[in-house]
From TrEMBL:
<dbReference type="InterPro" id="IPR043429">
    <property type="entry name" value="ArtM/GltK/GlnP/TcyL/YhdX-like"/>
</dbReference>
<keyword id="KW-1003">Cell membrane</keyword>
<dbReference type="InterPro" id="IPR010065">
    <property type="entry name" value="AA_ABC_transptr_permease_3TM"/>
</dbReference>
<feature type="transmembrane region" description="Helical">
    <location>
        <begin position="365"/>
        <end position="387"/>
    </location>
</feature>
<dbReference type="InterPro" id="IPR035906">
    <property type="entry name" value="MetI-like_sf"/>
</dbReference>
<keyword id="KW-0472">Membrane</keyword>
<feature type="transmembrane region" description="Helical">
    <location>
        <begin position="218"/>
        <end position="240"/>
    </location>
</feature>
<keyword id="KW-1133">Transmembrane helix</keyword>
<feature type="transmembrane region" description="Helical">
    <location>
        <begin position="87"/>
        <end position="115"/>
    </location>
</feature>
<feature type="transmembrane region" description="Helical">
    <location>
        <begin position="260"/>
        <end position="280"/>
    </location>
</feature>
<comment type="similarity">
    <text>Belongs to the binding-protein-dependent transport system permease family. HisMQ subfamily.</text>
</comment>
<keyword id="KW-0813">Transport</keyword>
<feature type="transmembrane region" description="Helical">
    <location>
        <begin position="332"/>
        <end position="353"/>
    </location>
</feature>
<feature type="domain" description="ABC transmembrane type-1">
    <location>
        <begin position="91"/>
        <end position="384"/>
    </location>
</feature>
<protein>
    <submittedName>
        <fullName>Amino acid ABC transporter permease</fullName>
    </submittedName>
</protein>
<feature type="transmembrane region" description="Helical">
    <location>
        <begin position="136"/>
        <end position="154"/>
    </location>
</feature>
<dbReference type="InterPro" id="IPR000515">
    <property type="entry name" value="MetI-like"/>
</dbReference>
């Protein structure tokens, strides 16, 4: 008896355009070709317009003489320096205010975020007022407030506000003692580097010891002691090779010391306080995301609240906090470009401002400025993503 075959007849391959994979490749190739033609048209049209106006392209202008002064320089600079030097100075000033702002905003944000969850009614309400006030006022307005309403309202240098007769606040900024390293000071930074390495190795040892024996070591206190104590011992053993130059009033201004511009102070305060308001809410949401059963289990073990927060709640909350905090760090770095409103010599003001006005090389200068912010942002994102990967739960 013959049974009917259950095998379907084999079909041919058919035309290529019916294959979904082939169609996807064709569509992508067409889109790439259209984009390349469009970009080529823009470049060609731009070059023609620049040539018609007598503007030469290229980066040769970076070797030209700048001819203008910059009020704050972290490296040596004179008016005879090149435009390439102005680019480096603007970049360093941007990195300086961004780093200071990130550190201050993180500390303030964590403290305010934890304070918002405090059982102390007054402390929690003060933290709420802080968040709702500073995150709802535009950042530019806050920068202008700190600069014009606070720092520019300080007295003249002769009537400076004094702190310990070493720190002076006036309309020209803050003047503080200037440390001058002497012979033998080079050993102190090396001691600090060694202390950091030893602390990291000790932390790894303590982690493995706790995993095998269940006994925890006071890593934070021992690490802090090593990082502070070893450089201090080396510093004292070499005869304290550091001399402080105190500022002194000479004429109508101070002589000696380090003068911190009011533009830097205003921008730093505004960026830190504004960003900290958002970080505080991020920290609060991260802590609230931790299951309440975790804190109840800690209380059942009679763990103190501080240890519960530091050992149990915060480590689990960091998985929620880190991605959002990364966005706030990037916003702070990009918002530092608002420094042009008060004349702080950052990358935008010095390079994309004065240098662009003098050279007219708009395409090259704007492209370099955009590339710098892109590289900084990608670097910060990469480092934060590395840390975020370490805080994720690992499946066994």
């Amino acid at each position: 008896m013959l049974r009917p075959s259950t095998t379907l007849p084999r079909r041919g391959h058919g035309p290529l355009w019916r294959n979904p994979a082939i169609r996807a490749l064709i569509v992508q190739a067409v889109l790439f070709l259209v984009l390349a033609v469009f970009i080529g048209y823009l470049v060609h049209n731009t070059l023609l317009n620049l040539e018609a106006r007598g503007i030469h392209t290229g980066f040769g202008f970076l070797e030209g003489r700048a001819g203008f002064s910059i009020p704050q320089t972290l490296i040596e600079y004179t008016s005879d320096s090149t435009y390439g030097r102005t680019f480096v100075i603007g970049l360093l000033n941007t990195l300086l205010v961004s780093a200071l702002g990130i550190v201050a905003a993180t500390i303030i944000g964590f403290l305010v975020g934890i304070a918002r969850l405090s059982p102390n009614w007054l402390l929690a309400r003060l933290a709420t007022i802080y968040v709702e006030t500073f995150r709802n006022i535009p950042l530019l307005v806050q920068i202008l407030f700190w600069y014009y309403a606070v720092l520019r309202a300080l007295p003249s240098p002769r009537q400076s506000l004094s702190l310990f007769d070493a720190f002076f606040f006036n309309v020209r900024g803050m003047v503080m003692p200037n440390p001058q390293p002497l012979d033998g000071f080079a050993a102190t930074p090396w001691a600090l580097l060694v202390a950091v390495v030893v602390t990291i190795l000790f932390g790894l040892f303590a982690k493995r010891r706790q995993a095998s024996t269940g006994k925890a070591l006071p890593v934070y206190w021992i690490g802090l002691t090593i990082i502070v104590g070893l450089p201090l011992i080396v510093f004292l053993a070499t005869g304290s090779p550091l001399e402080w130059t105190l500022p002194e009033m000479a004429g109508f201004n101070f002589r000696g010391g380090v003068n911190i511009l009011p533009e830097l102070l205003a921008l730093w305060l505004a960026l830190s306080i504004y960003t900290a308001a958002f970080i505080a809410e991020i920290v609060r949401s991260g802590i609230l995301s931790v299951s309440h059963g975790q804190t109840e289990a800690a209380r059942s073990l009679s763990l103190p609240e501080a240890i519960t927060l530091r050992k149990i709640v915060i480590p689990q909350a960091m998985r929620v906090i880190i991605p959002q905090m990364t966005s706030q760090y990037l916003n702070l770095i990009k918002n530092s470009s608002l420094a042009t409103a008060i004349g702080y010599p950052d990358l935008v003001a010095v390079f994309a401002g004065t240098t662009l006005n003098q050279t007219g090389q708009a395409i090259e200068i704007i492209a370099m400025t955009m590339a710098v912010y892109l590289v900084i942002s990608l670097t910060v994102s990469f480092l934060m993503n590395l840390y975020n990967a370490r805080t994720l739960l690992k499946e066994r």
